[in-house]
Amino acid sequence: MLKKTFIHIPGIGEKTEQQMWESGIIDWENISSNPLALPPARFKTIKDWIDISKQHLETNNHQFFSDLLPAAQQWRLFPEFSDNCAYIDIETTGLDMARSVITTIALYDGKDIKTFVNGRNLMSFPEEIKKYGMIITYNGKTFDVPFIESYFNIRMDHAHIDLR
């Protein structure tokens, strides 16, 4: 899916991407001609961004795409980066980050489920989450990740697919 999108390229929105697909430019490999008759400099810029994108994909640099894709398009990262992702969910004593604590964090990496429990092994979560390039949550962008960042005083710079 990632190789079929152009929306991460600065200046290309959904409308332009749709026009590219309709004109026959359906993926990164299919951009040898300029069927939209874009100005030559603009077309060259797009081709250059595709070359840069290929390099970042080849080196598994999820952060490059995560930084450029809109939040609603982050799902496109999954096929290429699913081998380095963690599904996470937290449980807390309440909704107020200032007065509540994390009681449990569950992490599933596609093979194993790991649980981090307050009073037992919760403090090892920050080190564990560093092993993954992408996280998948439900409502994690507005609750889980901010809560985790505040609780542990860490920054989670992972590519993030929020299923909500």
Strand order of the largest sheet: 3-2-1-4-5
Q: Which consecutive residue ranges, at least 5 long each, have pLDDT under 50?
A: none
Shape: elongated
The total of beta strands comes to: 5
Residue share in helix: 25-40%
Element layout with pairings:
Blueprint: H1 14-22, H2 40-58, H3 62-68, H4 78-81, E1 85-92, E2 102-108, E3 113-117, H5 125-129, E4 134-137, H6 140-152, E5 159-162
Parallel strand pairs: 1-4, 4-5
Antiparallel strand pairs: 1-2, 2-3
Could you characterize what this model shows?
- This protein is 35% helix and 17% strand.
- The chain contains 6 helices and 5 strands, in the order ααααβββαβαβ.
- It has a 5-stranded mixed β-sheet with strand order 3-2-1-4-5.
- The chain has helices at residues 14-22, 40-58, 62-68, 78-81, 125-129, 140-152, and strands at residues 85-92, 102-108, 113-117, 134-137, 159-162.
- Helix 6 (140-152) links the parallel strand 4 and strand 5 (159-162).
- It has 164 residues and is an alpha/beta fold.
How would you sum up this structure in a few lines?
The protein is of the alpha/beta class and 164 residues long.
Any descriptors?
single chain, 164 residues, alpha/beta, 5 strands, 35% helix
